[in-house]
Amino acid sequence: MQLTVLVLEDEPPVREALTRDLGGFRDTIRIEAAEDVDDAWAIVAELDADGDRLALVLADHRLPGTSGVDFLTQLLDDPRTVHARKVLVTGQADQQDTIRAVNEAGLDRYIGKPWDPDELTDVVRDQLTEHVLEHRLDPLPHLRALDAARVMPLLRDRGDR
Amino acid sequence: MNASGSGREPATLVALVIAPAPLGSAIAEELRDGLQDVAWIVAAGSVAEAREVLAGAGRESWIGVVVLTSGLGPIDALVDELETDPGLRSAATLLVTDRRVHDDLAHAIDRDRLDAIIAVPWTAGTLATHARSHLARWMHEQHPDDLRSRALVTHGGRPLQRPHSELLRGLELDPTEVTSRLLEAIERVLGPRPRLRLPVGVRLTHQDVGVDAVLVVLQGRVALSRTTEVGEVLLHHDSTGPVIGLLALAQQRRAFFTARTTTETEVVHLSLEQLDRAVSTEPAVGDALTAVAIRALAERLRRSEQLQVERIRLNRDLEDERQRLATALHQLEQARLELVEQARFATLGELAAGIAHELNNPIAALRRAASYVGDDLSTILTSHPQGELVTRAMAAARDRAPSSTADDRAKRRALIDALGDRALATRMAAAGIDDPAEAAALAAQDESTLVLVEAAAGIGASVHNLDVASARIGELVASLKAYARPDLRPTEGVDVHQGIEDTIRLTAHRLRGIELVRRFGKLTPVRARAGQLDQLWTNLLVNAAEELDGSGRIEVVTDQLDEDHVRVRIIDDGPGIDPEVLPRVFEPRFTTKHGTVRYGLGLGLAITRRIVEQHGGTIELQSEPGRTVASVVLPIAGPPDDRGS
Questions:
Q1: What are the tens digits of pLDDT across the range B21-46?
Q2: Which of A17, A39, A66 sits opposite B406 (nearest CB)?
Q3: In what order do the strands lie in the sheet containing B243-244?
C-alpha cells in the first residue's frame, strides 16, 4: 500500500511545477495529477484498484466545471476519500471561498500562489505525518516522506506489539 | 313693451300658493291685498294641481314667487318637485309653517332653495310685503326691462329694498358718509369738536399701552402695525377703518397695534368720557358707532381671510419647491455616484495601463532568457559525452504536445507493464519517455544516465513552460493596454470582436466555471470610444456571470443588424431578473423589496446605458427564468454629438 498525494490543477505548467516540486517524495509516495474533477475521481478509482491510499489532496480552487472547494467537500461523502487531508493551493480564492473551504470541506491548510517550494514540501510532509498519526498507520514504508521525530512513538508502540 | 320685446301680450306674473285649503285661502287673500296690482295669485293643493291651473290659463306665466306651507309632506320632497319644473325652478320660495321644529328641509337649505320662513300666525301684511319684495327681486333679475319691475320696487312711496333700521342702513352707506354722520351725531351732543391736523409719522395709539380716547379720522390714512419677534409687521393700512382705538375698548383698553399716520391727517379726538356721554345721550351715535365698528371688523376679517388663503397657497408653493429640491438632490446624488464609479474606472484604467507598460520589460527578458538557456545549453552539450541523448530528451520535453492527465497516466501504465517497476516507470514518464522500447533501453543503462535524461527533460519542460507563461502574460498585457486606452475621442475602425475578446480575457477570473459560447457574425468596424465599449462588455459579462454564480452558460452573439448598425447580445441561462426589479435595473441605484440596495447591478447598468446612449445606440434587457438577454445596438457611424469632428 502506497500513500498517494493527488494534485488537482487545470493549468499544465502549474501542474507540472507542483509535481516536480514534490519530486523528493517520489520514491516513497505515489504522486498523481489530475486536470479536472472527473479525472481526479478516475484516479481515486485507480488507487482503489491498486490498493493504494489517498492521503492528501492539493487542489486549486478555480477549476472548469466543479470548483476545487466543491471537490474537497465531495471527498467527505466517499469512504475511499473521507480520510484524505485537504490543502487548497490557489492564487484567486477570495475570503468567502476560503471560509467555505474551511467550514464545509474541513480544509487543513491553505497555500497561496506563487508558492515557496520548501514550504510546499514542509506542508506535504506535515500533512502526511498527521495522516499517518491520525489513522495509526504503519509509518515504516513511508518514513522518508514523514517527520521521523513525530512518528517515532508510533514506531515504538508498533515495535512493542 | 314686454321682456322679450315682441309685440305679443306680456306674460302673466304669477304668485303661486301651494297649501291645504283653509290656510291656502288665507295666504292667497293676503297676497291679493298686497300684489294684485302686478300679479295673478294662484292657489292650489299640490304642485301638480298648480301646473294644471296654469296650463289651463292659456297664456304664458312667469312664476316669480311660490309660497309653500307645512302639512304637504316633507319640505325637501316638495322643493325637489318644484325643481323638476323649469317654470318653477327659478321662483323665490317662501315657507309658511305652523310647526316649531323642521327636520325635513336640510336639502332645500343646502341648495339655497328657501328664501324666507314665516311662522303662523304672521303679522297681517308682512307676508304680502315679503312676497312683494321677493317678486321685485325676481323680476329685477329675470326681466329687468319689464315695466312691472319698476312698479314693484316702490310700494306706498317707499323703496322696498332699503332697510328701515339706522344700523342696517349704516352698514350699507359709504364709509365717509357713516363717519360724517357719526361726527354729526356726536357734535349734536358735545357741540363742535376741534379738527386736529397731524403730519406723517404721528403715533395715534401705542402697542400694549392703555387707550383713553378714540380718534375719528376725517381725512388721510393711518397704518396699524405691531412689533413681533420677526420685527415690526404692518398689519393694516387699507383696512384700518375711520375710528382709531375703538377696538381697543374690547381688549381691556390696551392697544394691540401702534397706529401711525402715513399721510397728513385730520382727526377728531374724543376721550372715552366724551364718547360715553354722546352714546348715552344720542341713540344715533350708538348706531353709527356700531356700523363703523362692524364695517371695520368686516374689513379686517376679510383681510385676515385673504391672508389665510395666501398662507395656504404659499405653503403649497413651498411644498412644491421642497419636492423639486428633493428631486434635484436625488438626481445630484445619482450623478455623483456615477461620477465616482467613472472616476474609479478611469483610475483603474490608468493603473492597468501603467502595469501593462511596466510588465513589458520583464516579459521581454523572460522570453529571451528562455530562448538563451536553450541555445547556451545546446552549445555546452556539443562537448558533452552524452550530448546527443541529453539534447534529444530536452527537445522532446520542450516540444511535447499538450496531453491530458488521463493520457499521461495511460502512457505511464504501459511503461509500468513493460518495465514491471512502478517507481522507475513513473520517473521515465515524468522525463517524457513514453515509448516502452526506449524506456527499456534506458533502464538497461546505469542510473546516472537516467538522472541525466530526467534533468534534460526537466530543462526542456521548464523552457517550454517559460515560453507558454511569458506568452500568456504578453497576451494579458496586450489586452490590458487595449482595455485601458484613453478615450478622449472616438476612433474609426474599432473591431467590436477584438474588444469583446480582450474583455473576456481580462474577466476570465469572473467567468471561471461558466461555459462561454461565441457566435460571432461578420461585423463592419465601428466608430467608437473603444475603452468605453470595453467597459460596456465588462459590465454586461460580469452581470451575466453574477447571475449564473459559477455555473451555467453565457452566449455572446454578434450580428450586423443592418448596414448602419451592429448588434451584440449577451445571453445567460441564469435564474433571470425579478420582473418587479427589471423595469428599474437601469436606474443608478434602487432598493429591492428586501430592502437591500443592489448597488452593483444598478450602477453598472446605469453606466452601461449611458455609454450606449453616448454612442447613439440602444440597450434592452429582457429576462425570464433560464434566459436573460442584454441586447446592444450600436450605430457604425459612432457617437452622434461629435460626428465628423
A1: 888 888 999 988 888 888 889 999 88
A2: A39
A3: B195-198, B265-271, B213-219, B243-244
